[in-house]
Amino acid sequence: MLSRFRGKTLCPECLGTRLRADANFIKITGRSVTDIVLMPVKDCLAFFKNHSIE
Fold it and tell me: Rounded CA gap, 3 and 17, in Å?
């Protein structure tokens, strides 16, 4: 019954990232938060292992 309320459309503002537009202004070693969120987990783990953040 709930399936009729769940759609597969992308939000035109966030394009499916579920992040606000201003999240793109935050950069971690040159990559936006959105870029990092969209990475596969394996690549994201490698990214954080290779870039120490303090």
Answer: 21
